Hints:
The protein is α/β, with parallel strands linked by helices. The chain has helices spanning about 15-20, 20-25, 45-55, 65-80, 95-105, 125-130, 150-155, 180-190, 215-220, 250-265, 275-280, 285-305, 335-345, 370-385; strands at about 30-35, 90-95, 115-120, 135-140, 140-145, 145-150, 160-170, 195-200, 225-230, 245-250, 315, 325, 350, 365. It has a 7-stranded mixed beta sheet with strand order 2-10-9-8-7-3-4, with helices on both faces. It has a 3-stranded antiparallel beta sheet with strand order 11-12-14, with no helix packed on it. It is globular. The structure holds pyridoxal-5'-phosphate (PLP). The site of pyridoxal-5'-phosphate has 13 residues, from helix 5.
Amino acid sequence: MSFDEIIDRRGTISSKWDRIEALYGIPPAEGIAMWTADSDYPTAPCVIEAVHKAADFGIFGYTFYEESYLGAIQWWMQARHGWRIEQDWILTCQGLGNAIQLCLQAFSAPGERVAYFTPVYHEFRVKTEKAGRVPLELPMVRDGDSYVLDLDDAAARITPDTRILIFCAPQNPSGRIWTREEMAAVAAFAERHDLILVSDEVHCDLLFPGQRHVPMDIAAPEMRHRTVTLNSTSKTFNLAGMKTGNMIVPDPDLRGALADLLRKLDYMAACLALPMVKAAYSPEGAAWVDAQMEYLEGNRRIFDEAINRIPGVWSMPLQATYLPWVDFSGTGMTPEEVAQRIHGKARIAVPMGAQFGTGGETFVRFNIATPRAVVAEAVARMQDAFSDLQ
Ligand SMILES: Cc1ncc(COP(=O)(O)O)c(C=O)c1O
């Protein structure tokens, strides 16, 4: 099995491929789906083997979080991120979208504010609004090829009824990896404003060669009393549809509040998810992730080279994740015209930057976790759709 193999996902109840007509008006037969953050290649062979074995066993009864499952998560955090966690810090939930909602429910009340730096994963806003809480944007600042945080500006925006700061590390979109000092500064900011810090680290395994992610708990161990770290196999291993993830919570009071909510909601992981996560968080899984990142490095190179050749268009250099963040401001076009050319002419389904909040207005987010030939086809279509600018 190779990352190069093109697998037709149309007609497989794939949200990414089977909804592009409904969401973007793009006929599936002609479209390229590069919107939602899942990958177009199969997960690691060790994960597929584990689910085959569980399926062949044929009994799908009740399960529990036993030692070897928790141990695999513990092993992964230590081996990949140098982070020593205790098994009883781990709370399994239904993916990290669910984890964000659980944190909102546990640590804030309706009408209170939830802050996050923008541009960011649009679901921070959506989940906050769905919960009846009020989003509070803290705009990041463009600094050369990347973003930086302006904590003075952020401090001026925080209100007395702000309860939670959701921090995306590494950042989706932009692929920015925060340094240990930046992570520590964010934790100190949360302390100064008495905020619960939800560190969403779902993209932390998808690091381009030479990059390193520092978990919030390592950057700011003294802030454990206010920190919840979110982690999952969903992006790393393309298991988003298995709907499983973990909240890692050293503080017993914070953990108790989340555990109580999980109990009240009667949540327990699906029995097939557990062997899959266990198989993923293994040395074989780690080797597969390394191979995936090498492949994505090649995709990133051809994507950036071709996109940056279009006058006025610029792809922010990714440090992590497979989600290029592309600025069209240099074309002088309105977002509507950019959308018309990408969706209407190039037939590529991608989200426009405005949905990621303030600072995203002139951007478009792509997804290059797909065979290289698909990336090559997409960039050729982009060059064609903007050929009048050449
Ligand atoms: C930053 C971030 N958090 C959470 C999620 C959702 O994760 P899950 O599929 O585990 O619910 C995503 C998905 O794109 C994401 O990018």
